[in-house]
Amino acid sequence: MRLLVQITAYLLPLFWASQVASADNQIIIETQQTALVIRVDKDADPTMVYLGKRLQQPTEYGLLTGNGKRGEDYTKIYNSVYTPAGGRNLLEPAIQVTHADGNPSLDLKYVRHEKSDLADGIVLTKVYLKDPQYPFEVTLFYKAYQKEDVIEQWSSIRHTEKKPVRMQKYASANLYLPAQSYYLTHFHGDWAQEMKPEEIQLSAGLKVLDTKLGTRADLFQAPSFLLALNKPADEETGEVLAGTLAWSGNYQLQFEVDPLRNLRLISGINPYASEYTLAPNKEFVTPAFLFTYSASGTGTASRNMHRWARKHRIPQGEGNRLTLLNNWEATFFDFNEEKLTTLFKDGKKLGVDLFLLDDGWFGNKYPRNNDRTSLGDWQENKQKLPHGLGYLIKEAESAGIRFGIWLEPEMVSPKSELYEKHPDWVIKLPNRAEYYFRNQLVLDLSNPKVQDFVYSIVDDMLTKNPTLGYIKWDCNAVIYNAFSATNANQSHLYIDYVQGLYKVLERLRTKYPTLPLMLCSGGGGRVDYGALKYFTEFWPSDNTDGLERVFIQWDYSYFYPAIATCNHITDWGKQPIKFRTDVAMMGKMGYDIVVGKLDEKELSFSQEALKTYSRVKEVIWKGDLFRLVAPYKNNLASLMYVSEKQDKAVWFSYLVSNRYQEGSQAPIRLKGLNPAKKYKVQELNVYPGTNSRINQNPAVLSGDYLMTVGFNPVVDARRTSVVLELTETN
Ligand code: GLA
Questions:
Q1: Is 389 within 8 Å of 465 (Cβ atoms)?
Q2: Distance from residue 577's CA to the centre of ligand 1 (Å)
Q3: Mean pLDDT along residues 597-625
Q4: Which CATH class is domain 2-313?
Q5: How far is the CA of 473 from the centre of ligand 1 (A)?
Q6: What DSSP state is assigned to residue 315?
C-alpha cells in the first residue's frame, strides 16, 4: 500500500498540466487556532495568501484579497510558497539550482496536494510542485499539530534529469506575512553569555540570522526567533510567530521586508560553502522549520512550543528525569577512584539520583589531565581509574546512586592516539596550518567509518556497562579549515556532517531508547530541535551564576520546556545557595559543588530542597509556564508554572537589581489559574533559621483574586528569591 502511494506520488506529477485546470484552488492548513492558506492561480503558481488566526468560516478564506498586497507585485510571486530563482523572481529565493544542462532557472508549478491524518491529532499536507520544463520536483510538507498549534514544515527535492543538478539554495520553508510593521527578537551571544535577546524593527530589505560554525553551531546566534507583528513582542497580547530551525549545523534565517512592505521569511540550511550536487532519483530532504503563531503574545507561543516538544519531539518528554551531582567544577581534571568514591557518598547524602563523571577520565598514552590532549582515546586512564569504569559504576551503585559519564565523541585532540592512527578522519585542510578551538579538532562525521567509530564508542561503553545511567554528550569545538579527506563533494561537508551525526544518534536511540542523554556544547552552543529528537535534555550555558541564569533561562524558556533544561547549582557568582537552588529548580535540577564544603545549614537546606523538588517537579516540568515580570525591564523576575488541571502552581520570584530599597513593592498578578478555584499560598525553600511571613499565616485566595489583584511575594534585599506553592483547597 505504502509503495503504491509512493509510486502514485511520483507518477502523478507527470499529469500536472491537466490537474491544475481549476483556478483559485485553495489549500488550507489548519491547527486549532491557526491557518495557513495556499492559493493556486490559473497559471498554477502556488502562493501563500494567509498565515494567522484561523477563521471560523473556512469558506471565507476565499474572500482574501490575494495576499495582502498593497501595490503591484511585478512578478506575481513575491508571496510564492517556495520561491524559485532564475526565472522572473526579483526577491530572495527559497531554491536556486543549475540543471544538468547548465540552465540556471527554475519554475515550480502546482501539481496536486494530499492530506493525511496521522496519529495524535497531526495532519500532514503534502503539496507537489514541478518544473514544467524539467523533470525536477519539490514536495512541500506541512505537519500541523492540531492541539499544540505548531506547524512543522520541510521540503523534499528530487529530479530525473540525465545528470546531477547543482543546488545553490534549498530552504526548508518560505512564509509570507503582511502587517504594518515587524519586530524581530533574536538571541545572540558567546560562551557563558548565550541567548541574549535583542529586538529590532525590521526595515525594508533583508535581515539575515545565520551561523557558519559547522558544529557548536549556535554559539553566536540561536536558530530561534520571535517575530511580532504590528507592535513589539508582548507576553500576553499581539500577534507573534515563534520559529526555530531543527538543524544542528549551519542555518540561515532570512527576513525580507519586500517592496510591498510584506514580510518574506525564508529558513533553512545555510547555503554558505554548501552547493549541493543532487544525483538523479536521489531525494534531498531539508530539515524542518517549526513555528507557532499566537494571537495572544509570546506566552501562548512558548506554551505551544513546550507542549509540542514534550509530546512530539523530546525523548521521554512527558517522562522522568534524574537529579545529579557532577564532579566537573568540584575536581576539574584532578581526581582518582578514592576522590570519586567520596563524591558518590556525598551525592547520596545530598539526595540526588545520579553521579556524573565529567571530563578527565580517559587517555593513557596521553592522559587527559588538561584540555590539550586525549580526545578520541576513550579508554579509562589507568592511573586515575586503575579498576576501570565497571568498578566505579558498582561502587556508585553500592553507595546507592546511579552513575553517568561525560563524552565528547565528535572530537579529537591533536595529541591523541586516534589522531596518530587516523589523521584522515580529522576535518582539516591538507595544505594549511591546523587551527584549534579549545585545543582540539573535529572528526569527519561525513565519513561512514567515523560514524561507526563514534557509534561504537558509545555502544561498547553501554554494552560493557549496561547499568550506566546517563551520558553527557559534549561538543566543544567549531569547524575550522572545513575539508574532508574522503568526501567526494567538499561542498557537502557541512551538511553530511550533521546528517552523519544524526545517523549515529538514530542508531543509538534505536538501541537505547530510554537512556538519558544530555546535549552539551561547551555550554549552550548547540540547542535546537534537530538534536533534541535524540537528547532528553540540554545544557544551556556553562554560566551557572544564579543571577545570570535568571536571564539565560528566561530566554531559553521562549522555545524549550523546563523538563529539558539542565540547571545546576554551582559556586559561580555571588548569590546565596538558596537563590541558586531556587533558580535551578526551574528546570531539571542538578549540582556541581563540593558537598563536603557545605556548612550544616547549606547541606540541610539542599537536602530539603531536593525533597521539595521531587514533590513539585511534575508541575514545573509538565505545567504551563507563565512569565509574569521580565528581568530586563524591572528590578524583579517572576514566573510561574501551572499544572494542566490548574490545581497546583509553583511560582518563582527574584530580585535582579541591588539598588537601594528595590523589591516587590506591589502585588504581582498571577496568570493561568482557575478564577473559580481557591488556592492556598505557601512558601517553599525557606532557609533554615529564617522565618517566612507567608507561612506564618498561609493565605487562601481565589484564582480570580490572585489574577486580578495579585499577591506580593515580598521580595527584597533580605529575601532575594522566593518560591511559592499554590495548592487548590476547598
Ligand atoms: C564543556 C562543558 C562543561 C564541562 C567541560 C569539560 O565546557 O560545557 O560542562 O563538561 O566541557 O571539559
A1: yes
A2: 22
A3: 98
A4: mainly beta
A5: 10
A6: T
- Grid cell of 639 as nine digits: 514566573
Are residues 645 and 686 in contact, defined by beta-carbon separation less than 8 angstroms? Answer: no
Class for domain 324-409+449-476+515-622, per CATH?
alpha beta
Q: Where are the domain boundaries for CATH 3.20.20.70 in the chain? A: 324-409+449-476+515-622
Q: Is the distance from the beta carbon of residue 328 to the nearest atom of ligand 1 less than 6 Å? A: yes
State yes or no: pLDDT of 20 exceeds 70.
Answer: no
pLDDT digits (tens, 9 = 90+) for 489-523: 999 999 999 999 999 999 999 999 999 999 999 99
- pLDDT tens track for 189-238: 999 999 999 999 999 999 999 999 999 999 999 999 999 999 999 999 99
pLDDT bin (cut points 50, 70, 90) of residue 1 is: very low
Where, residue-wise, is CATH 2.70.98.60 in the chain?
A: 2-313
Question: Class of 625-729 per CATH?
Answer: mainly beta
- CATH 2.60.40.1180 residue ranges of the chain are 625-729
Stated pTM of the model: 0.96
Of 1, 43, 4, 9, the C-alpha closest to 25 is 43
Cα 201 to Cα 183: distance, rounded to the nearest angstrom: 4
State which of 359, 527, 570 you would mutate to test the pocket of ligand 1, scoring each by most atoms of that ligand within 8 A of its C-beta.
Answer: 359
- Please give the Cα distance from 672 to 453 (Å, whole number): 49
Give the three-state DSSP class for 202. Answer: coil
pLDDT digits (tens, 9 = 90+) for 528-545: 999 999 999 999 999 999
Give the cell for residue 63: 474572500
Percent of the chain surpassing pLDDT 90: 94
